[in-house]
Design a protein that fits this description.
By secondary structure, this protein is mostly helical. The chain has eleven helices and no strands.
């Protein structure tokens, strides 16, 4: 379950620093001193709030993966038509990735080193919500196809195309920033452009014009 209570300001600083450290160096390579330095706190405070590196990693992993799961679920709720669902999904997911820009790297490291932990957490969240985001998405896509709103497509392939398309700006940032040196300076603009471009591209590609 996602952590319900709010973080104190100090915890927020530690948490954000820990997310970046674990994302870039993995659990094994991450250093508490580096997290403390990045958070601008004494290392003793990291121990005070999160006890040790293992516990801090578990907090970060549980919190961020739960938020990921719930953000996808919320993006699929209350969508009366395909246009609304697609726009909601893109906006909510990209906002999540922008807020937690170490998420993709953290998940990749977890998948490489502890795939069973990722699988167990996923199954736990599916049980709590009684459905997986991919299943809800597939059901909605089938409904929209039956209504004639969109052309016939493979729901699973459409789901992973949508996830990957939202993700690439963040995963590919190191490469993209070389080709586009203004990426960091104009990051908010690029993110907004990504939302608008993806929506137009996917909506026009999937809607039924017959």
């Amino acid at each position: 379950m996602a952590r319900e209570r709010d973080y104190t300001e100090t915890e927020e600083q530690i948490f954000e620093a820990a997310l970046k450290e674990f994302a870039h160096n993995g659990k094994k390579g991450a250093r508490l001193q580096a997290i403390a330095d990045a958070a601008g706190v004494n290392k003793a405070l990291v121990h005070y709030y999160f006890r040790n590196k293992q516990h801090l990693y578990e907090e970060v992993f549980d919190y961020i993966y739960s938020r990921f799961f719930y953000c996808l679920c919320s993006a699929l709720q209350g969508s009366g038509n395909f246009r609304e669902m697609l726009k909601s999904f893109i906006n909510v997911y990209i906002d999540f990735l922008k807020t937690y820009n170490g998420f993709s790297l953290l998940m990749r490291n977890a998948l490489d080193l502890e795939p069973e932990v990722l699988q167990d957490k996923y199954q736990e969240l599916v049980r709590e919500n009684k459905a997986a985001p991919s299943t809800v998405f597939a059901q909605k896509i089938k409904e929209f196809m039956d209504k004639g709103e969109i052309r016939k497509v493979d729901p699973f392939q459409t789901f992973i195309t949508l996830l990957g398309s939202c993700n690439y700006l963040f995963i590919g940032y190191p490469v993209l920033s070389i080709a586009h040196p203004d990426l960091e300076e104009n990051w908010d603009w690029y993110v907004q452009q990504r939302k608008e471009h993806l929506f137009e591209l996917l909506y026009r590609g999937l809607k039924n014009d017959n």
